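$ ./design --mode recover --in tokens.txt
reading tokens...
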């Protein structure tokens, strides 16, 4: 089982979906392999989200705040460009005590993988640290997505507190460069060097070397593991024709979902990167998160 801490509900008419990465993670895995938690309101959006979860075979353990609105994100697409505006609403009211609630604590204990978005660190650092420390102490896998450049720019201290517990860090080239700049690292345009810097940061559980995965859109993906930090691996991406690209929104999340789903399934890091590439490539050719059903085999 995998436990994911949710930030907000991506919302774009006519779609109500869980977090894109979590949706794609569940797409890769058997039904009810994934449970995720976050804070929602007691409104129509949360009910729609629960129905969408059920359709995807995705389990949830929400903290429901009465009288609050569920977070939402509006997306405007113009050609290959996109703009997102988010209202966090109830999402930023997550309470760490929810993790020890009678119906949630057993899920935390049973999970073998944990996934947290960098966005969550803007308001839920205590909760993220509790999950991260439990994962580290019990030898389970903790994965952090850098999520956006502004996380490294404005929440560097929060990242520094979580990094020691991270077994995997996933991000894109802009997020990696933002971290390098915030951390005062030279060569902020040298992605392999940045990935190496993150991979070799101090780690609370050294028995599992940290792996850093940095995507670069249609360009190659860089993977560095602390165990072999001097030799980054480069994975080319099968480029699509411009005419094939419909919607780039969520491509990074699709990669993260595919990558993590493959890891949970027992695949190697190299194999997981290829699964991530496949799902991201599928996603940018679709309008919204409408992946084929029945499921397309990707493992």
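writing sequence...
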């Amino acid at each position: 089982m995998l436990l994911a801490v949710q930030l907000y509900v991506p919302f774009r008419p006519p779609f109500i979906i869980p977090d894109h990465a979590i949706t794609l993670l569940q797409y890769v895995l058997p039904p009810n392999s994934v449970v995720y938690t976050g804070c929602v309101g007691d409104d129509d959006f949360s009910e729609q989200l629960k129905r969408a979860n059920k359709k995807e075979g995705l389990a949830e353990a929400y903290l429901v705040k009465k009288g609050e609105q569920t977070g939402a994100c509006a997306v405007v697409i113009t050609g290959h460009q996109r703009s997102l505006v988010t209202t966090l609403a109830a999402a930023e009211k997550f309470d760490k005590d929810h993790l020890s609630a009678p119906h949630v604590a057993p899920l935390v204990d049973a999970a073998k993988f944990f996934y947290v978005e960098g966005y969550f660190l803007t308001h839920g650092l205590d909760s993220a640290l509790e999950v991260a420390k439990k994962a580290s102490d019990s030898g389970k896998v903790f994965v952090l997505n850098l999520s956006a450049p502004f996380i490294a720019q404005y929440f560097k201290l929060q990242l520094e507190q979580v990094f020691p517990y991270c077994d995997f860090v996933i991000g894109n080239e802009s997020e990696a460069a933002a971290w390098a700049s915030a951390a005062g690292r030279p060569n902020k345009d040298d992605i392999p060097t940045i990935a190496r810097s993150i991979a070799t940061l101090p780690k609370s559980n050294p028995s599992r070397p940290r792996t850093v995965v940095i995507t670069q859109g249609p360009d190659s993906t860089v993977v560095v593991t602390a165990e072999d930090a001097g030799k980054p691996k480069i994975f080319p991406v099968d480029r699509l024709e411009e005419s094939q690209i419909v919607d780039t929104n969520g491509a990074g999340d699709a990669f993260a979902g595919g990558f993590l789903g493959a890891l949970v399934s027992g695949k190697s890091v190299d194999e997981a990167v290829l699964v991530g590439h496949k799902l991201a490539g599928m996603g940018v050719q679709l309008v919204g998160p409408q992946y084929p059903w029945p499921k397309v085999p990707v493992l």
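exit 0
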